[in-house]
Amino acid sequence: MPHPTGADPRPLTGEPLALDLLNTRWIDAEGPRDLLASEEGLALWLSGTAVREQTKALAPAADAKTLARLLETRATLHALAASAARREPAAAEDAAALNAVLSHGRIRRTLGGDGLPQSAVEVDDPSWGPAWYAAESWLRLVADRPDRIRPCANHSCVLHFYDVSKNGTRRWCSMAGCGNRAKAQRHYARRTGS
């Protein structure tokens, strides 16, 4: 199915980059969707604010090479997110796959002319840039609060989020979407006695 060339069609955006990559797959009334099913969808994702801000110095192309690397990274992140949701350590093969992505880049730290530290990301090839940034984003999330990486509590939803609520009790990708549906189902069950 073709993707719009303008606005991002995904129901949840604005999550940290690793989860934003995971959320390029979603389910809506028309069924399963995948923004990265085409290079056009990749171009749309790369133009998104979070991705554009992090990868602008690398200028990755929306081509088959970048897409293949992102799809591989997304599959790895999906497996890692499943382990995190079960509060289990990452499987060795998933850790190795993420480390393989990370091996294609590094952060170069230098002291600038103004006497302040500077950081720059360097990758083997610009096509690794978005995948590397997503993998690095995952490292920051698991270093900070791995218990806040969550799948939506709606079992028919495939979206993930990073819970930044004060008390850490967010359950839904969106209260307006999945949260509302759950409330409506509970209300219907109470009214009908089912």
As a percent range, the share of helical residues equals 40-55%
SSE string: HEEHHHHEEHEEH
Strand content: 5-15%
Chain-averaged pLDDT: 89
How would you portray this structure in words?
The chain is an alpha+beta fold. It is built from seven helices and six strands. The strands form three sheets. Strands 1-2 form a two-stranded antiparallel ribbon. A two-stranded antiparallel sheet has the order 3-4. The chain has a two-stranded antiparallel ribbon with strand order 5-6. β3 (105-111) and β4 (117-123) form a beta hairpin. α4 (64-85) runs antiparallel to α5 (92-102) and α4 (64-85) runs parallel beside α6.
List strands and helices in order, with pairings.
Elements: H1 17-22, E1 25-28, E2 31-34, H2 39-46, H3 49-55, H4 64-85, H5 92-102, E3 105-111, E4 117-123, H6 129-144, E5 149-151, E6 160-162, H7 175-192
Antiparallel strand pairs: 1-2, 3-4, 5-6
Helix pairs in contact: 4-5, 4-6, 5-6
How would you summarize what this structure contains?
It is built from seven helices and six strands, in the order αββααααββαββα. It is an alpha+beta fold and 194 residues long.
Features:
about 190 residues, alpha+beta, two-stranded antiparallel ribbon, two-stranded antiparallel sheet, globular
